[in-house]
Amino acid sequence: MVTVRGRHRATDLRSNGFAALAAGMILPLVAIGAVYGGYRAMSTSGCAGTVRLTVAASPEIAPVIKDAAARWVKTEPRVDNECVAVDVTAVGSAEVAAAVAGEGGATVPGLGQADGKTQVPQVWIPDSSLWLQRLRTAREDLVPLVAPSLARSPIVLAVPEPTAKQLGWLENKVTWKQVLEQIVGDTRIIPGIVDPNRDSVGVSTLVAMASVRDQFGPEGDSLTVGAVKSLMTGKSEQQTGLIARFPRDSDPKTLSTAVTLAPLSEQALHAYNAAGPAVPLIAVYPDPAPIALDFPFAAMPRLSPNRASAAEQFRSVLTGVAFRNLLAQHQLRANDGTVGTGMTLSPSAPVGGQVTPVPDATVISKALQMWVEITQPSRMLAVVDVSAAMKAPVPTAGGLTKEQVAVQAAQGGLDLFPDSWAVGLWCFSTNMPGGHDYQSLVPIGPLTSQRDQLRAAIGGLKPNPKGGSGLYDTILAAYQNVQQGWDPGRGNSVVVVTGGRNNDASGLSLDNLVSSLQKAEKQDQPVQIIIIGVGSEVNQAEMQKVVDATGGAVFVAPDPSKIGEIFMKALALDDGR
């Protein structure tokens, strides 16, 4: 017997013209966490009792699992002469993960609390083994150590066809470095992503991007920071929200405001195109391939012997040619990457081949932490040296002065700051107006209202030919300024760009500064100091003593022409911790 229990979500989809999806076609457009239906399969002939399995499956694969369960129970499977009943419910992986963690008294960073409605199943089929790794990090025994994968859906970059043609991406292989360069530097690219904390596709994308950061050093840092900040501006909480932002028309005006690049599963892209949009999406397969969705079969720990036996029997039928063909009907590949009857891939799509393995839990945590560090709303005071030391020319920068090189780096960084940030600007040297070693040019405020003012102020920075470096007095004053307006919802930081050593004989000594910072520090209101040194005149050891007093980092570019790379690396760490 097979029954279908309807839910409100199905009604909502029908009202939006997606009846085919809600009726059991391709379901990746359902919002993560939405339960769209349940399926019950039961063998009832001459049973001494019933062994009931509850199965929570990711919406993309739930119709396949339902069909397989219905076929299986027709064979009247039994465990110790008890018939097997199977309840299959489609539910987003993030919701089940939160429920599993909550039941075990654990917390998965970035995931949030369980919704109180989702039940922990006996068998869980999430969209990716990444979820199992994240839960094992929270507590090792929350999920099984072994969970065989049932299917595969590669992660692709979904690009509207007109944009893919302009970029030359229709047939050519594209590396992740090329992708990041386009995201950062090409105005035709408007990227989007689903919040990686709740989406496996987003996590997979971050892991791939982090590999560029690791491989290409400072250049990789710069590209990754820029790309993540761009993705953050196009972040959606759910896949439906992201997909709704793809262009509905191919005219230049629409393409200039719509999302033109976003990571999706191969299946989600097929589902989008199956609906006949005016502008179809092209699947770009970046090299190396990101971690694919793999739909692991996780028989949860502490099942009764009969349920464990029933779960293993059920898993054993989710293989072979018949199952592969069921997967193909819903645009999913078999676990080995091959496709069943009825599924057509684009000419550039790889078939079979090596599978990118699910990484160690520390790699996943590092990628998600990178997202938090770069995208967390920040409240930052930028403090730029305008002493005579900044007049020095930089031979490797075409004769530009240190000041001009620093201004270029600051302008580039400003363009990458999201509107959610609050930023202010000071400059410093001795002999400044007002009797201080520093001057406030733009007070800390939201970028939404003062980005242009900051850009103009940065562009107007010029060295004071008679000014020395009142570095130490300035650092203390800047720290106190940020501390006075400390915001608990943001990272609070001071970023100092300096071209030399402190030489204000009437001001604080290094020891006085360190002591004063230690006294001013409040453990429950952290303010981070980041110091960026321009040129070899900056004493890194002295600066390290300063940041050690409060937390922070020192970056020194002996070659000032490299300050742009250093500046981007510093911003990647600017999370106010």
UniProtKB/TrEMBL annotation:
- Domain VWFA residues, every copy: 379-571
Superkingdom of origin organism: Bacteria
Q: So which residues are the signal peptide here? A: none
InterPro entries registered for this protein in UniProt: VWF_A (IPR002035), vWFA_dom_sf (IPR036465)
Indicate the transmembrane segments per the record.
Answer: 20-39
Q: Which UniProt keywords apply?
A: Membrane, Transmembrane, Transmembrane helix
- Output the Pfam families linked to this UniProt entry: SBP_bac_11, VWA
Q: Does the keyword Aminoacyl-tRNA synthetase apply?
A: no
PROSITE patterns (alphabetical): VWFA
Q: What is this protein called?
A: Substrate-binding domain-containing protein
The species is Dactylosporangium darangshiense
